[in-house]
Write a structure and sequence with these properties.
This protein is of the alpha/beta class and 128 residues long. It has 2 domains: 8-56, 2,3-Dihydroxybiphenyl 1,2-Dioxygenase, domain 1 (Roll); 69-124, 2,3-Dihydroxybiphenyl 1,2-Dioxygenase, domain 1, CATH 3.10.180.10. The chain contains 2 helices and 8 strands; from the N terminus they run E-H-E-E-E-E-H-E-E-E. It is globular.
């Protein structure tokens, strides 16, 4: 049987500098070296060897919906929600209720928000 592990997620972005600033400010991700090429694609660490790649595509049409998202987990989601509020970031629950978190049936608390390109991001407290 072949086994897999998650490596990275790549997003097409209109302005790589604006997107970098967003992810560094909101998720406090650290930029890491793009070892694949000398392109303008920039990489961020998601921890544990996982990466977020931001690929500049200024003329690409980006269409998303909330069902197409990526999720990261934190052990202190309440502190993260306070961080979003301090940044005046709009967030919602799964049902699009503004500035509200959601607790799933399995007890996991989550919030959703969008990056400058419209990509949806979920932050939850599923750290087990």
């Amino acid at each position: 049987m072949i086994s897999f592990s998650f490596n990275h997620i790549a997003l097409s972005v209109k302005d790589v500098d604006v997107s970098m600033a967003f992810y560094q400010k909101v998720l406090q991700l650290e930029e890491i070296k793009n070892t694949a090429s000398d392109s303008k694609t920039r990489w961020l660490s998601l921890g544990e060897g996982k990466q977020l790649h931001l690929i500049p595509r200024p003329n690409a049409e980006i269409k998303t919906n909330k069902a197409v998202h990526f999720a990261v987990a934190t052990s202190d989601i309440d502190a993260f929600i306070t961080h979003l509020i301090a940044l005046n970031m709009e967030y919602s629950d799964w049902k699009n209720t503004p500035n509200k978190d959601y607790v799933r049936d399995d007890g996991i608390k989550q919030v959703y928000f969008q990056d400058p390109n419209g990509y949806w991001i979920e932050v939850n407290d599923d750290t087990l």
